[in-house]
Amino acid sequence: MTAYKALMAFTRDTHALAQIAGRLGWDQETMMPLGATPQRAEEHGALASVLHARRTDPRIGDWLEAAKADDEVAVANIREVRRSYARASKVPANLATEIAKTTSLAHRVWAEARVNEDVAAFLPMLEKVVALRREEALAIADGSDPYDALLADYEPGASGETIGQMFAALRLRLVPLRNAILEMPVPEKLTVVFDESGQLALSEKLALAFGYDKTYGRIDKAVHPFSSGSGLDVRITTRTNPHDPFNCFYSTIHEVGHAAYEQGIDRQYLLTPLGSGVSMGVHESQSRIYENQIGRSRSFTGWLFGQMRDQFGDFGIANEDAFYACVNRVANGFIRTEADEVQYNLHVLLRFDIERALISGDLQVSDLEAAWNDRFAADFGYSIDKPSNGILQDVHWSEGLFGYFPTYSLGNVYAGCLHESLRKAVPDLDTDLAKGDTSKATGWLREHLQQFGGLRTPRDTISHATGAEPSEEPLLNYLEKKFSDLYEL
Amino acid sequence: MTAYKALMAFTRDTHALAQIAGRLGWDQETMMPLGATPQRAEEHGALASVLHARRTDPRIGDWLEAAKADDEVAVANIREVRRSYARASKVPANLATEIAKTTSLAHRVWAEARVNEDVAAFLPMLEKVVALRREEALAIADGSDPYDALLADYEPGASGETIGQMFAALRLRLVPLRNAILEMPVPEKLTVVFDESGQLALSEKLALAFGYDKTYGRIDKAVHPFSSGSGLDVRITTRTNPHDPFNCFYSTIHEVGHAAYEQGIDRQYLLTPLGSGVSMGVHESQSRIYENQIGRSRSFTGWLFGQMRDQFGDFGIANEDAFYACVNRVANGFIRTEADEVQYNLHVLLRFDIERALISGDLQVSDLEAAWNDRFAADFGYSIDKPSNGILQDVHWSEGLFGYFPTYSLGNVYAGCLHESLRKAVPDLDTDLAKGDTSKATGWLREHLQQFGGLRTPRDTISHATGAEPSEEPLLNYLEKKFSDLYEL
User: Fold this and answer.
1) Active-site residues (chains A, B) (predicted)?
2) A426-449 pLDDT, tens per residue?
3) What was the pLDDT predicted at A104?
4) B420 near B353, Cβ under 8 Å?
5) What is the predicted pLDDT for the residue at A67?
6) Cβ contacts of B17 on chain A, cutoff 8 Å
7) Min CA distance, A156 vs chain B (Å)?
8) Which among A30, A232, A271, A276 is the top mutation candidate for probing chain B, defined by the most B β-carbons within 10 Å of its own β-carbon?
9) Is A213 in contact with B47 (Cβ distance < 8 A)?
10) Could you identify which of A216, A254, B29, B58 might form a hypothetical disulfide with B35, taking C-beta atoms 3.0 to 4.6 angstroms apart as the criterion?
11) Chain A contact set for B32 (CB, 8 A)
12) Is B419 annotated as a binding residue?
């Protein structure tokens, strides 16, 4: 057997085990009885140890040295294994264990602090998490920017500096757009109650309308919707709220976007380093373009309005135009996950700047709340009223996920680029969307992006699909046009 | 760290990984999308390799040599690890792989042959399976009886000879009992249709009535009911049939018996070699005593009759006595899994004698069908009409599970012993059972058997609970009394 074949055989089992770990996570959020929690922690830990040992197995180094790549697939596989091996090998095992233990503890402390609105109870724990992740980042970075080392876990090849410039440009046009919108009359809200079974039935119909394939997946309920798994077993979850069926429908479409990426990857990459989405940013571009540019378009919401009338009868919204405005309603709010298309990125930009400063050491954890609240007031024009609406709202930092937030807006930026190209390629798309037929959109994304999985780097994945380097311009143009029309700015 | 502590820490992770493998099996039978099958096979394979490597890790040999046992728990742990390590180490890795591959293939060939009633299509595959398992048995047996080596996987310490004597004694009294019953008028059957939601609701009520704890488990539907998992996560499944709600109810009670054993084991044994049921026979004793001696008793069926009337209204059975006769109806049939308490063991005895002869070499696979059909006619008095009612009815042999069948009847024998002791300890049990209260029965079983898990050998587990060596007498006495009364023999 050649070194390359041996490497791929070993890697295949590692990927299969990683799929199992992912499915355990799915089980925990959807099926697991509550009392099993402590046992599950041990099961997770045992599997994590096996995976860590495999990812740092010194034979990988030998195989990598001897492996010869005959084609672009082999080049990409070797690139990905090299990256994973180098990253895993640079982190001392005891530091990895310490981080796992501390973040597991910090997660519980955060959840309690959030309920009690008690920032002081969380900060000492957060300080430890920041210190450990910085230590890890410095070990991986080898002299380069430690934030970039963390970013590479979610968006390989990206740098804090480039993202910073892109996000600054976003902010420059998003803040005035937001301010202009909020001076206009606010569209009406939904006011009636929507039954759960109707929401779930229409949610499933939406998933299928966006091409979700239940032969290779399933839909369940979970507290926080997510998509999990790769290849032939990609499962999604959704949730319901009697007063807000959009939460259910757009969560579903969002997760179907993630799942479509995984389900759309060329089967030849199954259980290889190329067999799952290439980065969080590219992943989010798929969930966002499904959810927003397609799902919240005037044409598609016209169809959805009819579906909702069929499912729920008259629900107090008079016509398609009023429904479109209702779906795309922009209003004041504190919570990132509930934000509309315009304000969502402002939430992310705030977190990106703050976490970058935390990791560089320019901002101390003790000054974090003031920094958050000041920046929020500057961008949104009003003050945080309580910590659960401010720095305690997100789980990410308690889990040590520094470098994750920017991928949300990067995904929106990528979605903007892809949407521009898609519209050029399929000029009459709205005719189909108005009939609830997304196949030309999802087909274009599959053909130009999803099928390639991890074959190219994240930026190259986007530029291969669009024919241009990623830029924030298309997203900004799209948002300004859509909301200027809608709010008659 | 002492050698014993190091051994136990290593073993704990292995048990945690084995729990994960079990949960994957549960997922496959209840939740997994059909299209995921090939990927799941690779995931299972990867985890099986990890488990095999851990179970044959040479460090276990070193630890075992150096380990000192300070108490009976440590003695039992070392005994169990030594047994597992010796067994795993004696089988060459390539033979283990060959068996896994062949049985996986044979399982598919069997399923197809069964549908097509095509014995000839299955026999060459079965021949391979028998040859491989014989080779394995000879490797483990080291000169002793190879069938006992296989038996030890399911019932450590048992021998084909002892079981053979016990089963011969069973057959001597069961055949005449069966013949006498079948000369009497057959009780009436259920004839109406029972809706699925009502069956599932009452099935859950029954599970809870038998003490199943949903904080540490859950109930789902599956084609073939099973219980899976140990410790804090023990899940059961059931099934429904519109014409036969007893299938649902007694499958549930049966699986609750298995689950109660796992849920009842002392928590100090969690994820250790003592943390799950000690053998298949002892496991089956719990499922059978829940299902039969308790669940099919006159007193408990009296309560169940009322529950069914509440759930389904008048379903055509006039009173408690007629219902008791209906539940315990004995009639001609070909299928083991559908057999009543009396005939079930005759099905098992037939398989035991035949598989023992296959493994010893006294019976050739080419003569298998004739041997089966002759024995069936001798014990049951009529002939097999088609292979799916004969040698193709069970999955076990295609999966290489030789030595498994006898544990079913061993479980019934053990249940007979336990039931005799239980009735002595709780003389007024029927008063409670008539109210649907099983707590004194399940409490006695938990206190005298379930809590000990793998602490004692299987036989010692039973004799510790009953104060006597296991014997077939109590089961035979119980069956003769119950069915003589019921059929007025």
Assistant:
1) 255 (proton donor/acceptor)
2) 999 999 999 999 999 999 999 999
3) 83
4) no
5) 97
6) 43, 46-47, 50
7) 27
8) A232
9) no
10) A216
11) 233
12) no
**Residues of B assigned a catalytic role:** 255
A330 pLDDT exceeds 90?
yes
Size of interface A-B (CB pairs under 8 A): 110
Closest alpha carbon to A256 in A441, A40, A483? A441
Nearest to B231 among A39, A45, A215 (CB): A39
Report yes or no: B31 at the A interface, CB cutoff 8 Å: yes
In whole angstroms, what is the distance from residue A180 CA to residue A483 CA? Answer: 10
CA distance B401 to B170: 23
Is B231 an 8 Å CB contact of chain A? yes
For residue B47, give the nearest of A20, A215, A216 by CB distance. A20
The one-letter amino acid code at A389 reads N
> How big is the CA angle at A182 (ends A176 and A185), to the nearest 5 degrees?
145
Q: What's the CA gap between B262 and B26, in Å, rounded?
A: 16
CA gap B339, B178 in Å, rounded: 12
The dihedrals phi and psi of A194, each to the nearest 5 degrees, come to -115, 125
Residue B449 in contact with residue B465, Cβ under 8 Å?
yes
A338 is in an annotated binding site: no
Helix (H) or strand (E) holding A37: helix A37-55
- Span B122-138, average pLDDT: 96
* Facing residue for A233 by CB, picked from B17, B39, B218: B39
CB of A215 less than 8 A from some CB of B: yes
Distance in angstroms (rounded) separating the CA atoms of residues B205 and B212: 10
Sign of the dihedral through C-alpha A456, A461, A466, A470? negative
For residue A23, what is the nearest residue in chain B, using CA coordinates? B24
Question: Does A254 show up as a binding residue in the annotation?
Answer: yes
Signed CA dihedral, A334, A338, A342, A347: sign only: positive
B24 touches chain A (CB under 8 A): yes
- Whether residue B101 is predicted with pLDDT greater than 90 in this model: the reply is no
Residues of A that are catalytic: 255
Residue type, B126: L
- Name all domains of chain A by residue range, CATH numbers in brackets: 3-146 (no CATH), 147-489 (1.10.1370.30)
DSSP, collapsed to helix, strand or coil, labels residue B219 as strand
* pLDDT value of residue B96: 87
Q: Which of A12, A28, A30, A39 has the most B C-beta neighbours within 10 Å, making it the best mutation to test the interface with B?
A: A39
Computed over every residue of chain A, the mean pLDDT equals 96
Cα distances from B40 to residues A52, A233, B44, B456, in angstroms, run 21, 8, 6, 36
Closest by CA to B461, choosing from B445, B479, B439, B442, is B445
Other Cβ atoms within 10 Å of B321 Cβ, number: 15
Asked if B232 and A36 come within 8 Å (Cβ–Cβ), the reply is yes
In this predicted structure, the answer to whether residue B94 has a pLDDT above a threshold of 90 is no
pLDDT score of B215 more than 90: yes
Task: For residue A133, give Cα distances in angstroms to A83, A100, A155, A360.
Answer: 19, 11, 17, 11
- Displacement of CA A347 from its chain's centroid (Å): 14
**Other C-beta atoms lying within 10 Å of the C-beta of residue A63:** 23
